[in-house]
Amino acid sequence: MRTLDFWLREAAQNLRRHALMSLAATGTVLMAMLLLGTSSVCMRNLKTWASAAADQAQVSVYMDREASREQARAVARQLSRLEGVRHAALVTKEAGFDRLRQQLRCDPALLDIPNPLSDAIKVWGDRPEALASVARTAQRLSGVRTVVQDRNTIRALTMVKRTVTAASLAMSAYLMLVALVIIHNTIRLTLHARRREVEIMQLLGATPAFIAGPFLLEGAAHGLLGALLAAGLVAGGYAYLLRTWGTLLPFLPLSSPWIMVDVSAWMLGAGVLLGVVGSGLSLRRYLRQHLAT
Amino acid sequence: MLEYHQVSVIYPNGAHALHEVTLTIGKGEFVFLVGPTGEGKSTLLRLAYREVLPTTGQVIVNGKDVGRMPHSRVPHLRRELGVVFQDFKLLPDKTAWENLAFALQVVGTSRQEIHRRLTELLAQANLEHKADCFPSQLSAGEQQRLCIARALINHPPLLLADEPTGNLDPQTSQETMDLLGRINLNGTTVVVASHDRAIVDQMQRRVVAIHGGRVTRDAVGGYGPEESE
C-alpha cells in the first residue's frame, strides 16, 4: 500500500515535472487511438451495411402453372424447415400480378392481359452462403418449375463482408503495433532523460520492480489520457456525422450512436494496455542493460 | 565487516584497476584509503556495494560474498550500506526533503515515520531551513551534508565515503570530517577514500595506501610521504 502510494505520487510528480515529454507521449497515443477509433467506427458501419445487404439475398422458387395452391404451401413449409433458412414466404400468383401491375401502371396496355404468373416462394437465409444448398433442394421438390438465385450478388456480398472483417482486424493490429513502437520509444527517451535518477534509485537499494512502478503508471496514464481524448473526439465526430448523414445518404443508415460505448471501452482498454506494455518493454530492456553487475 | 581476498579487477577496456588486494576492515574502525587519483581507491569502495564485480577474488560485506550474490539480493545489500558519493548523486529535481525521503521510501517506510526521521535528520545536518531547496540552490558543503544525512538514513553499520572533501573548502572539509568522526564514535564503521593529505594527517587513523592497484602500506598514522598525488 505504501509502495503504491509512493508510485502514484512519484508518477504524478514525474508527469508534472516532465510535462513536455508527457505531452509528447500522450499525443502519440491520442493519434494512434484516433486512427484506431475512427477505423473501428468505419469498419463497424461497413460491416453493418454488408450484413444488411447480405440479409436481403434471397432465392425465388417458381411453381408449375398447373401446381395447386396446396402444393405451393407444402413447398413453402418444407423450405422453411431447411437448415439455414430464416424465412420462406408464399407469394400467390394473384399477389404477384397485383404487384406487377402496380410496378407497370405507367403502361396501360399491360394492365388488361390475363395473369401469366405462377405461385412463387421467396426464401431468405440466415447467411447468404446457405442459399446455394436451399436452391438445390428446392429444385428437387415436386411442383417446382424453376429456382432463381442471384449467385453473383450473394458471392459478392459474402466476399465484401469477409474482406471488411479481415481489413478491420489487420488495420487494428497494424495501428496497435505502430502505437506500441511509438510508446516504447517515448518511454525509452524518458528513461534516457532520467537515467541519473534511475541509477541513484538503484544505488540506494531500490528493487527493479520498485523502480519500474512509477514508469508503468506513467505509461498507463499516457495511454489512458490519450485514449480518453481520442474517444471524446471520435464520439463527437460520430455524433456530428449522425446529424448530417441522414440528409446526405438516407438509404444507407449509420449504426446507432451506442456503438461508441463499445468503441470507447475498447479504445480506453487498448490505450492503457499500450501504455503499460510499451513502458514495460522499455524498462525491461533498460534495467537488464543497467543491472549487468 | 568488510573483507577483500585476493581481489583483482580488470575493466572491460583492459585496464587493471586492482591487483590481488587482500584487506580486512573490522567493525567500528575508521579507515582512510589514500593514494593518487585513478589508482584503485574508488574501485575498492564500488566493489563493496557491487557497482563493480571482482574479476577474481572475493569481497565479503557483513559476512556475505558480494560477487556470488544473486541480482535479487543486491538492493538489500545496498540498503545495509551508507554511501557518500564523490559527485553527491542527489536528484536534481527533488528538494532536500524529497531527496532524503526517497531513500526511506525505497525501503517502504511509512509516511509518518519518514516525517519524524527527516525532521530529526535535517536538524542534525543543520539543513532544516533548506528542506524545500533543490540541490542547485544549496552550497557544496550543504550538498555534502545532505548526502551524508542520506547515507545515514537507514542506520547502516558501514559507511563508505568517496572523496567526501573533494569539492569543499578547508573549513567545510574539516566540518565534514568531524561529522564522519562523530558517526564512527557511535559505532559505525567508516571507510573514506581520500587524497586530502591535510585531513588524513590531522585525523591520525588507520591509513591504507593504494598504488597501481596494490596495497602498498597499511598502518595507523598520516598520509605518508610515498603516496604523492
Provide a short characterization of the protein structure:
By secondary structure, chain A is an alpha+beta fold. Chain A has helices at residues 2-17, 19-55, 69-81, 93-103, 131-140, 151-193, 195-203, 208-248, 259-290, and strands spanning 58-63, 85-91, 120-125, 144-149.
Can you offer a commentary on this structure?
The complex is a heterodimer of chains A (293) and B (229). Chain A contains 9 helices and 4 strands; from the N terminus they run H-H-E-H-E-H-E-H-E-H-H-H-H. In chain A, helix 2 crosses helix 8. Chain A folds into 2 domains: 2-53 and 157-290, no CATH class; 58-149, Alpha-Beta Plaits. Chain A has a 4-stranded antiparallel sheet with strand order 2-3-1-4. The radius of gyration of chain A is 31 Å and the shape is elongated. Chain A is of the alpha+beta class. With 229 residues, chain B is of the alpha/beta class. In chain B, 32% of the residues lie in helices and 27% in strands. The longest helix of chain B has 16 residues, at 170-185. The radius of gyration of chain B is 17 Å and the shape is globular. Chain A binds chain B through residues 2-3, 5-6, 17, 196-197, 199-207, 210, 291, 293, and chain B through 49-53, 71-72, 74-79, 83, 85, 89-93, 102-103, 105-111, 150.
